[in-house]
Amino acid sequence: MSQLVLDRLLPDMSTPTALDGAAALDRAPAAGREAATDSSTPVRSAASDPADLRAAPDAARRVTVAVAAPGDDRPHAGDPVAFRPTSGVALALAAARADAVHLSFSAQVPTVAAMAELVEQLEDEIAAVGRERAGVSIVLDLDVLPTADADVARRKRSYLEHLDALAGLTWKPSATRVVAAPEAVVGAAVDLARRVGVDGVVLVPLADGPAVDHLRALAPVA
Questions:
Q1: What are the chain's domains?
Q2: Are the C-beta atoms of 178 and 188 separated by less than 8 Å?
Q3: Regions in the chain scoring below 70 on pLDDT
Q4: Where is the composition biased (Low complexity) (predicted)?
Q5: Is residue 84 left, alpha or beta, with left meaning phi > 0 and alpha meaning psi from -120 to 50?
Q6: Is this model's pTM higher than 0.85 or not?
Q7: Cβ(21)–Cβ(178) below 8 Å
Q8: Which residues are CB-contacts of 199 (< 8 A; sequence separation ≥ 6)?
């Protein structure tokens, strides 16, 4: 496997991620599924990149969804060995030693298609060291902003898109951040996990508030 390819795709964890909307999910619609029109679901952008089009997600894949725990991030006795690789070398090391590998969107992995490719590369590394795929949990850390309802979500999404434009980023965070009511956040996370092939999603709220409390009531705390 090309080290250059791995380093190109791996997220730079030192780069702040400001993710927005469930637009990426719309760029890869499930076969036979109509685009969402219910006002309770996130508004998604039109397809713009043919490379992002993917096959229907594996509906049979079991996906775990949890909300990132605030506060203490230090490892404790009995915790699984978790890696957040930032280079091709780190990815290979994670494949050999980790119980869980956490991935996230970034300028290096800016789209659903790129994340799916990175997951496939990690799976290749796991197989190359003789480990079973089932022995390694691949987790997507996903920035989310749960809101009171769809109307608030639309306003927040527009505001965050404006901030992203002012920041002059080299990628489009709005393609992968989920801004929606809590139930829609969980549904979008499961759909995204099935598309890219991960085993679970850790939702990382961008702000606190009643909607985040509601989200934690829907999903366990990681």
A1: 3-28+61-70+79-218 (3.20.20.30)
A2: yes
A3: 1-60, 71-79, 222
A4: 18-34, 44-55
A5: beta
A6: no
A7: yes
A8: 62, 63, 64, 137, 138, 139, 193
Query: Are residues 182 and 214 in contact, defined by beta-carbon separation less than 8 angstroms?
Result: yes
- Residue 73: how many CB atoms within 10 A of its CB? 7
DSSP per-residue letters across 140-151 = EEEEEEE-SSHH
Number of residues written out for the chain: 222
Residue 163 in contact with residue 21, Cβ under 8 Å? Answer: no
d(C-alpha 219, C-alpha 186), whole Å = 8
- From the list 104, 97, 105, 88, the residue with the least C-alpha distance to 126 is 97
